[in-house]
Design a protein that fits this description.
Blueprint lengths: L1 H22 L11 H9 L4 E2 L1 H10 L4 E4 L3 H6 L6 E2 L5 H8 L7 E4 L4 H13 L4 E4 L2 H7 L3 E4 L2 E4 L21
Parallel strand pairs: 1-5, 2-3, 2-4, 4-5
Antiparallel strand pairs: 6-7
Helix pairs in contact: 5-6
């Protein structure tokens, strides 16, 4: 009987440990920041402009660099006319090589502005002096009824996709052997 009690106790402990591990989330004492904290950090110290201001700047400066830092798939599906695609993780490395003017006027956008904030901060650290993020990003551009482009031409989107980092699913513990 004691053997069964000991086994039951061990099983109960293992189950309890699994519950504890599964319920601890980012920001709850495990050292990870919450999504809200990451978003706040991404925007900290970043200058943003609205869509109307961006349109004025485009009319005023034909050399304005409009930089889309979403994924290649997002860019290929639809992007703001005249934007150049550069992957977020390597934007500063590409621009330092290909855009040697530290005074170039650069407007960075992504889906909602969070990734763009990270890129703006990196570009400023790299030495660019005139870099801003598009407030609300691509989603806001679409919500305001502006046209977008892809390989099919120009069109208006009815509703941008709802997929974001919060809905991203992956299995980090796939079999390695």
């Amino acid at each position: 009987m004691e053997k069964y009690a000991a086994i039951s106790f061990v099983v109960m402990l293992l189950c309890f440990q699994g519950v504890v591990v599964q319920t601890v989330k980012a920001g709850e004492g495990n050292g990870l920041k919450t999504i809200e904290q990451l978003i706040k950090d991404a925007h900290e110290g970043v200058s943003c402009i609205g869509i109307d201001e961006m349109k004025k700047r485009i009319k005023k400066n034909s050399k304005l660099v409009l930089l889309d830092v979403r994924t290649k798939a997002e860019y290929d599906a639809a992007h703001i006319k005249g934007s150049a695609w550069v992957e977020r993780g390597i934007a500063e490395f590409i621009l330092v090589r290909k855009l040697p003017d530290p005074n170039a006027e650069i407007v960075v956008y992504c889906k909602q502005g969070h990734r763009a904030g990270l890129v703006v901060r990196s570009l400023i650290k790299a030495g660019y002096r005139n870099v801003v993020s598009l407030e609300g990003g691509f989603d806001e551009w679409v919500h305001q009824g502006n046209t977008v482009h892809n390989f099919l031409g120009e069109f208006k989107m009815v509703n941008p996709g709802k997929i974001n980092a919060g809905s991203f699913e992956t299995d980090f513990y796939q079999k390695k052997n």
